């Protein structure tokens, strides 16, 4: 067994022979990858029977050791490579002194294999094992992570690639997995406590007397924000003040390098596995051809930059020339970045652009609609349309919603607008093409084109000052009613963001279609960024009976209570 | 030991990983229909990135042209040498060989030409909709987007049991434990904070003094136990004023807490116990305020109000104006209080946040007593007011 694998290593090393001659370290120990595997996690798991061990690790970032939780001794966790149509049995051995779990993010599995303790299954208790077993019904780029406590922040995440049963619609010569994450030496429970003690504790980019003139904000806008007790620079709760941004487990200094040959079609499988960071992705000098999102192919669309919310995945095709490129994963608040290199040869580096000026929030992010009244949405809230002067809006008009508005809700967007055509906070004026959700068109026609029979409005709510986060004003800890769907019911969800933060919302067990003006070919997603003060409409066929988690994928928002249960009934075998 | 076994696990897991690797030498799917591998290209046997030779003579059918996927050539003579006429499939576009038409400009389905001859392959590429699908579906969807879909409650089937689906699979007992952890970990955490807002040395005419002003809390989002203390005095003398408040704090709005409890005084002079009722929070424009009414065990009613504002000069340098005022409903000779406004302080502190958790500061504080309170103080040989220079630290954890 071992002999064979050594032979095989030598065989696959064939491609790497040149590089090896140039003085490269052995592939598994180096920060250099020829493709297919994520560095630091050299493990690649496949087949019908997979074993995983969750344990505490000593993880080094820039040479400094930190306490971590990893799988099979690596961070990121091993790459799981499956084939559409196969069955898989994954045994997880929990060597921790606390419960753990693995959620298969984006995978369509029976609900009791979904891996959310307290909703799908009891959880994997300390020093015990659990076996997941499910058929693999899809293909594409996915990932997995802990759904217990704050383990995800500590390194408990890994990529999944599922090869299609038939030919891959996305042709490529080489592929790299790009797992983005955020690392902190601060214990996540302490980090959460800090946020509860002072919501803005990690913000080192406030407006000050010294930099007051540098923002695009007018004095009037700034006053409006201050009057509302809102900070226009509160873009990201946790910033580079606490985080080092990692790519495939490597800091910018460690410079993970993905190799290619000039002219190859390189497929980048981008996964945002960060706990609390939304990234802006670009590779200066390269066009990014977006070919899939959340595992599902879209019509190729060429962009220069894209914003990726936590838990989203994008497949990109790039065709690099014979030179090095920097892959830049800039935090949404621009306090820091993850940097990796794509190069034809190990050891090369390209220039790393400086951090761009941090953005400030706008009236649109306050839910005031667009400043030009043309694109304002008047239909969402009938009464909002009649009150003309934008500034006179009540920012917390309880009559607009049908849930109890308590101290946990500091704002109700007066005129939320459909923001699927917006590139994301801070990317309106970067001077090049940035992907928007409107650009996404499903490659294959939607399987269910029924018009939804009903709409449900879900308000994403919070209180920045108290770091309280909820949906429809209630935290999961308050035992709210589940959102209930009938089996195979076609529903439209309107997620209305009544906060000034971008929330990547994830529904387990389902894909939803973004209602983005491409009827019949609406793009499918499992996670969607809902921009501040705006809303998105998604259509959904509730075809997965059971109970499912539905939550903001910002880990500390979820931990603060921004999560709900979605119930789809009747269950399998029950009478309809 | 654990690490050793992990290492073992890692090494035993590596072989299948490598085996898998070898199965996919350079990508999951074979290089796109070209026989020129990167290796060959490197040897100079062929050229790599030339557009795929698969569909050698490009065939732009009128149907495709109608869909905007290609342009019909002007004259057939130019066809073979006209690369622009290559059919742009999503696959080609994915390879970067061509650009697909702007999707937004051209809604996909419902073009009758497409529906008549819709090959499954074409449908898979999203070029058309198979005949089985209602050709009007696209229109309906378009309409649905414009027309508001009504907000309605869930249909009756959605309310079918059981309440918790996982109980049927894993048992209620096992799930009950998991559910209680779930609630705990999603919004039900106990947090605490201790803030020493001012711990300062006061330099003034006469004897220098000190002030410690701290508060701490523990609890959830809505209800907290809140403790406040303030100690003030002159060096080398008995503590002049000292008090501790133990309050139940309840959030009454996004920015305000109602606080009720007891206050005990332990300074110079007669000690009192008070009932305290106050409001603490954040006013518009980020002004922090704290106001309270006190009813002493002897029936005296007093009040106090404070306001602070942080003006940021840089990220770390902050100017903090601060006002404080005391009121009394009646004259209390024993405590040296007149009625009405008894005393007030106005200060400005400049602090430097070495970290948000630790900031030394320096500033000035002007305080004075009013009316009968001022007279009482003078009678006791105290200052009626004056300017203090202050140096101190602000810290929290």
Automatic annotation (TrEMBL), chain A:
GO cellular component, one term: periplasmic space
Region annotated Disordered, chain positions: 376-395
Molecular function, one GO term: oxidoreductase activity
Domain Plastocyanin-like: 55-164, 236-330, 455-570
InterPro entries, per the entry: Cu-oxidase-like_N (IPR011707), Cu-oxidase_2nd (IPR001117), Cu-oxidase_C (IPR011706), Cu-oxidase_fam (IPR045087), Cu-R_CopA (IPR006376), Cu_oxidase_CS (IPR033138), Cu_oxidase_Cu_BS (IPR002355), Cupredoxin (IPR008972)
Pfam family, one: Cu-oxidase_3
Keyword Metal-binding included in the entry's annotation: yes
NCBIfam families registered for this protein in UniProt: copper_res_A
Descriptive protein name: Copper resistance system multicopper oxidase
Naturally occurring in which organism (per UniProt): Sphingomonas xanthus
